[in-house]
Write a structure and sequence with these properties.
130 residues; mainly alpha; 5 helices
């Protein structure tokens, strides 16, 4: 039954193409475009990314957790926490930092769960230790 429906649809489409003056041949194959090359960072952008990641790693080493961006967090913590929060949102939106290895750098410095909220990341890390 499904084959008959498919055949009938194909016949009807062929007739519509003929009536509309369109060629009966299938559309040309679409060749996928090559991925765009990773954008090159300026030396300043590279230094800023490295500095942010170093501050985050130092915070985690000192406090044993990721920084919070909450309004109640101390100013220094809130600053690095806000940058990390923006990176999480960018990852969700598919536009993480233009450095081709930004996600890997953050993961290496902060652990596998850096992209989660500080509370969720800490809970997962504690589960892994037990």
């Amino acid at each position: 039954m499904a084959d008959l429906d498919r055949i009938e649809r194909e016949r009807m489409l062929a007739q519509l193409r003929e009536l509309g003056g369109l060629a009966a041949s299938p559309p040309p194959e679409v060749v996928p475009a090559e991925p765009a090359p990773a954008p090159k960072l300026t030396a300043r952008e590279q230094r800023r990314l490295t500095a942010h990641i170093e501050r985050l790693a130092a915070f985690k080493a000192e406090h044993g957790r990721l920084p919070s961006a909450a309004p109640t967090a101390p100013t220094g913590e809130r600053t690095v926490g806000a940058w990390l929060w923006r990176q999480r949102r960018a990852l969700e939106g598919g536009s993480l930092h233009p450095h081709p290895h930004a996600e890997e750098l953050l993961e290496r410095a902060l652990g596998l769960h850096w992209h989660l909220s500080p509370r969720k990341a800490q809970a997962l890390e504690q589960c892994g230790r037990e």
